[in-house]
Design a protein that fits this description.
Keywords: Repeat, WD repeat. This protein is mainly β and 255 residues long. It is built from four helices and 13 strands. The chain has a five-stranded mixed beta sheet, covered by helices on one side.
Length: 255
C-alpha cells in the first residue's frame, strides 16, 4: 500500500519531525569559522558537572593545584590553587593562593522545576548554602610570573616560579596555604602576607618551561628562551644547587 492509498483510506501516516535547532558543534579556535559581529561564545551546561567563575585582581598566565592534607570527594567540594599574576608594574605582582570552597554540582532542569515550587524562604536558604566561597592569600612578588609549579615537600608546600625578569625562584607557601585553609567566612575573604624566596637563580633569558622531577623529590628543571635547560637539585637542610653547565642541545625554545 502506497502513501496516497493510506491517506485516502483515512489512515494516519507519521512524518518525521523537522529539527527546530541545528546540531550543536564544539567551537575550536583556529579551526571553526570566525565569530560574526555580535556573536558570543557560551558554555554548554550539559558538558559540566561543576562550573564556577572566579576573578583575581590581575590576570594570571599560569596556575597549579596545591595538594591537600585530607582530600575528599564528598560534596560540597573544595580545592586550592596557586597562581602568579601579570600586573601593570613589576612591583604589583603577587603569588596568590586561592581556596575555592563549597563547590556543588550544577542543577538540572528537574531540580530547577522543584525549586520553583518551594517557598521563597527555603529558596533563599538553599541558594546561600550552594554559593561558592572564594578565599585568597597573596604573597608579594617582584616581576610578572611566566610559569608556576607547586610541590608538596614533607609537611610543607613550596612552588617554583619562572618570572619575566629572568629569575627562577623557590617560595615557601606553607604559611600562606594554612592561612587560606583556616579562613572560615561565608563570603569572599582576601589577605596578604610577606615571604622571601628560599632560592633564586638568574638566567640569561626568561623562560616558560618548568616542572618538578617525578623521580627524585625536590629536584626540578627549567628551560629558557636561550635553549638552556637547567637542573636544580635539593640538598640536605632545604637548600638547592643548580648545575652551572646547562643542557643546551635542545633544537628549539623549551616551552
Amino acid at each position: 500500500m502506497d502513501d496516497d492509498e493510506s491517506i485516502d483510506n483515512g489512515m494516519e501516516v507519521e512524518q518525521p519531525e523537522a529539527s527546530s535547532k541545528s546540531a550543536k558543534q564544539v567551537y575550536i579556535p583556529g579551526v571553526s569559522r570566525a565569530l560574526k559581529e555580535g556573536e558570543e561564545l557560551d558554555f554548554d551546561p550539559g558538558a559540566y558537572k561543576i562550573f564556577y567563575s572566579f576573578e583575581t585582581k590581575w590576570s594570571c598566565l599560569s596556575f597549579d593545584f596545591v595538594r591537600e592534607d585530607d582530600p575528599s570527594t564528598d560534596l560540597p567540594l573544595k580545592c586550592y590553587i596557586v597562581a602568579g599574576t601579570q600586573a601593570d608594574k613589576p612591583k604589583n605582582n603577587e603569588l596568590t593562593i586561592m581556596g575555592l570552597k563549597n563547590l556543588n554540582l550544577l542543577e538540572d532542569d528537574d531540580d530547577e522545576s522543584e525549586d520553583e515550587l518551594s517557598d521563597d524562604d527555603s529558596d533563599d536558604d538553599g541558594d546561600s548554602k550552594k554559593e561558592a566561597i572564594f578565599h585568597s592569600v597573596s604573597v608579594s612578588h617582584y616581576g610578572g610570573v611566566n610559569r608556576i609549579k607547586a610541590q608538596r615537600l614533607g609537611d610543607g608546600t613550596v612552588c617554583a616560579v619562572w618570572n619575566d625578569i629572568g629569575k627562577v625562584q623557590l617560595w615557601n607557601l606553607t604559611n600562606a596555604v594554612k592561612e587560606c585553609v583556616n579562613m572560615s567566612t561565608k563570603g569572599k575573604e582576601e589577605k596578604q602576607i610577606q615571604e622571601k624566596p628560599l632560592f633564586s637563580y638568574i638566567t640569561k633569558k626568561e623562560g616558560f618551561a618548568l616542572d618538578w622531577s617525578k623521580l627524585k623529590q625536590g629536584d626540578f628543571a627549567s628551560g629558557d628562551q636561550a635553549r638552556n635547560i637547567h637542573i636544580y637539585r635539593m640538598h640536605e637542610g632545604g637548600t638547592w644547587v643548580v648545575d652551572q653547565r646547562a643542557l643546551n642541545s635542545h633544537s628549539g625554545e623549551p616551552w
